[in-house]
Amino acid sequence: MKLHSKFAILDVQHGRKALAKRMPRGSQHLAMDDRIPVTITGFISHRHGADDGVSIEFGVDVEKVEVHDK
Length: 70
Description:
Layout: H1 16-21, E1 38-47, E2 58-67
Antiparallel strand pairs: 1-2
């Protein structure tokens, strides 16, 4: 099976305050040079949303998040 996705949502518990301090206010994106590289390892575990004609959201149980240096 091949899957294609343009984004994922990460629920951060430990380290959330430090990460939030690096984010611009509101829903603005970080500048390209300031983005934080990560590798997320986990398992697709459930359907999270309905088909909107473009995509369906699925929940992922995260086993590990690795933050990388640039």
